[in-house]
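Input record (Table S2, row 402):
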Amino acid sequence: FRTIDDIDCAGKRVLLRADLNVPVREGKITDLTRLERLVPTIRELSEKGARVIVVSHFDRPKGRRVPEMSLEPVSAALAAVLGHPVMFAHDCIGPDAEAAVAVLKDGDVLVLENTRYHAGEEANDPELALALSKLADIYVNDAFSAAHRAHASTEGVARHLPSHAGRLMQAELDALTLALENPERPVGAVIGGAKISTKLDLIGNILAKVDVLIIGGAMANTFLAAKGVEVGKSLQEAEMHDTARAIMAQAEARGCRILLPVDAVVAREFKANAANDTVAIDAVPADTMILDAGPLTVAYLAKEVAKLRTLVWNGPLGAFEIAPFDVGTNTLARAVAALTKAGTLRSVAGGGDTVSALRHAGVVDQFSYVSTAGGAFLEWLEGKALPGIQALTSLRGIALPT
Ligand code: 3PG
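Output record (3-phosphoglyceric acid complex):
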């Protein structure tokens, strides 16, 4: 697909699909990463004299004007991060948007109100896509993290305008391609999380691509139990034992080694600083639950990771939100960061919880690449085609029938 290298954008109106869906708690933005990562594209377009019209969804207002889901405060935060004034329009189409676009000068930046205030966004309504496209001459998509949604502003609009990938989109795709499609081998993956049932497609796709698969979190309990290990009161999916066994057989057939915990930190209560013990994996007391990988496991995993050239990480090893059950995740994440710094490992992480786990471990800036995407990262790991990316390659400039 084309990038912004291929645009002569001086004086042009550029509709930039960004992902301004930042995390907010009690009305405050808690993490500016998504805004910071947009800066290169916005700055480059603006410096080249484009009139930059930023469009995004925010949260899930489901077609209603929910005031708490306005992008106005986010546009102010974007201005601060950019160090450049940002204008705001109270709608993403219609008279407000048109008037705001009409007064733009070369280099100006405008943010349009939440696209999901219109039900047509999620429905990928051709009329909304057409109305958005009429605001601009060129479409640039920099929202990899929303590319798994076939919505009017991520997919529909690309049918009407010459469409290009922004710098963040490029960076995400380059990093992900180097990690799984074309990695330096051996390549491994850390897949954690609570349930196998939600990550079946992901595991199936990853198995075919990696040499080593490290299973962490409660998901590991299901694999252990499927092998006949007594996991006490640990969170696990009893109905997935056959599936877990099938996955292990498939991995073996493909020459992919699955690594499971050899010891665990167990407790009787799921709460911060609960009394806990470290036990061998075949000695989990019946009245306890596994809340973290044990030190032997972490040391063994760190040794295995040291043999890899590429690692993809999604999901924590334990209940990292509550101390001291964050130790396993923290320790392995720091080992990965050290190998990355030493230049022997390319490390790529993504998916909601993963980024908070790495931030908690203090290494979020020390991986080779940390994706801004949650759901889109997972769908990419599943091997699915993402509609927002397909639109950049196949639908560019093809008008919908009216
Ligand atoms: C995300 O935060 O993962 C993206 O912005 C997509 O948001 P959504 O899950 O509400 O579509």
